[in-house]
Q: What sequence folds into this?
């Protein structure tokens, strides 16, 4: 054996050991599908591949050992629910026969059909599904990385440790302090998410520190989702507490003086929550899947197969969204079902069928009241993309009923993706 071959052999041996540890070595399968990322897209794809074709070996590689939901994480920030309520493990997927490997994917070699794991060596696949979510372009806001390292400036735009940290900062904020939320230009993950965050934190202030302020500085000219409903809630519920300013793009931050520099002026705050511009998760870049604006991965919406790398399917926030399609958990869950069905058809020598999917997105505007937007997206043969069908729309008004549907939606999508 040459040195290179020996190293490769050792890596493959390590990967096999990881799979034996995951519990299914020795079973004979029709083909192996590897899924990268166990968020809404990846977890759902892994589950439905096994449900719809138990003859497939499905390996899910996820760097975190628990799933943490971004949906409802804004309620954790406001103190209206807990981290434990939005977290769960991967045992539900294991019960479906998915081999869950807790590791980081560091490289994809599409020619050799292998992925490289940080700890566990190389893993071969017949089809690969990549659902890595997002990574941030910190460099677009000068000073962001050092500000974040100081622990004073957070995004909390991936639910997890930063959600805890931001909650702590809000609890420690003096009554009369200013919380600034900076929103990047669209497209970004979850269009209504920042406005929901501003609303529920405003309710927390109203109850617990009523002299404090929420200042929303949006790089977009106006609220990008459910604008009428959000603005009505802010006017009715949080006058004097929540202030919204459109066309205010962050360009630099200084944690030492807690100053956010906008294109036109500098503003000081006590809590700086800056969501940086972002694109597809880093592994998509390493795998050569990025096609557009150096950020997003274009796909064939009938199969979710990458337009850049054949045999690799991309899901969720990492995709170049089709017209009027939000980057949402709801969409990632639907993308996963398109991909699972297509992979099964392709591996069986058949052609994938027609595609039509649904998005529903709830946002809380107070602890109990929510608003909703829904849309249906279908394949358009002429323009060769998914297009929103007429219909859909938003709630007539905010209500507690929508709030209880929002909790049901969350419990259902967690179960559909992970149990
Ligand atoms: C505050 C907030 C509120 C939101 N609210 C809603 C809502 O109410 N409704 C809604 O529909 N959507 C909501 N969203 C959006 C939703 O969270 C995302 O659209 C969804 O998570 C996208 O799914 P995904 O699979 O693309 O990415 P993710 O769910 O982020 O999953 C990606 C996974 O890949 C893993 N990963 C990445 N790279 C690697 C690697 N190299 N190796 C191993 N693992 C890797 C990550 O650890 C992660 O677990 C919200 C988002 C935020 C930030």
A:
């Amino acid at each position: 054996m040459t040195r290179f071959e020996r190293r490769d052999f050792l890596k493959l041996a390590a990967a096999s050991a990881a799979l034996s540890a995951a519990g299914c070595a020795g079973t004979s399968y029709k083909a192996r599908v590897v899924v990268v990322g166990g968020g809404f897209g990846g977890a759902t794809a892994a589950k439905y591949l096994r449900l719809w074709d138990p003859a497939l070996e499905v390996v899910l590689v996820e760097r975190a050992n628990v799933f943490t939901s971004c949906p409802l994480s804004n309620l954790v920030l406001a103190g209206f629910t807990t981290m434990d309520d939005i977290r769960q493990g991967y045992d539900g997927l294991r019960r479906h026969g998915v081999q869950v490997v807790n590791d980081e994917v560091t490289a994809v070699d599409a020619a050799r059909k292998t992925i490289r794991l940080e700890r566990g060596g190389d893993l071969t696949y017949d089809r690969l599904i990549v659902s890595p979510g997002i990574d941030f372009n910190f460099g677009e806001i000068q000073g962001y990385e050092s500000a974040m390292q100081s622990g004073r400036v957070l995004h909390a735009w991936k639910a997890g440790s930063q959600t805890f940290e931001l909650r702590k900062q809000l609890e420690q904020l003096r009554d009369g302090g200013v919380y600034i939320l900076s929103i990047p230009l669209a497209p970004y993950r979850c269009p209504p998410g920042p406005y929901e965050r501003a609303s529920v934190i405003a309710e927390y202030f109203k109850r617990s520190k009523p002299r404090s302020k929420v200042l929303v500085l949006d790089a977009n000219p106006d609220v990008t989702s459910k604008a009428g409903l959000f603005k009505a809630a802010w006017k009715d519920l949080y006058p004097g507490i929540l202030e919204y300013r459109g066309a205010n793009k962050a360009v630099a931050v200084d944690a030492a003086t807690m100053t956010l520099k906008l294109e036109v002026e500098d503003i000081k705050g006590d809590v700086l929550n800056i969501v940086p511009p972002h694109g597809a998760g880093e592994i998509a870049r390493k795998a050569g899947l990025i096609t557009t604006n150096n950020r997003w991965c274009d796909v064939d919406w009938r199969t979710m197969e990458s337009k850049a790398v054949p045999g690799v399917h991309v899901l969720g926030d990492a995709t170049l969204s089709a017209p009027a399609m939000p980057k949402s958990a709801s969409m990632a869950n639907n993308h996963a079902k398109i991909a699972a069905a297509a992979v099964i058809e392709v591996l069986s020598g058949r052609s994938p069928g027609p595609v039509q999917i649904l998005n529903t997105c709830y946002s809380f505007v107070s602890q109990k009241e929510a608003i909703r937007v829904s849309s249906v997206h279908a394949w358009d043969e002429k323009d060769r993309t998914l297009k929103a069908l007429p219909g859909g729309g938003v709630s007539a008004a905010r209500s507690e009923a929508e709030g209880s549907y929002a909790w049901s939606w969350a419990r259902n999508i967690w179960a559909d993706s992970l149990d």
Notes: The longest helix spans residues 3-22.
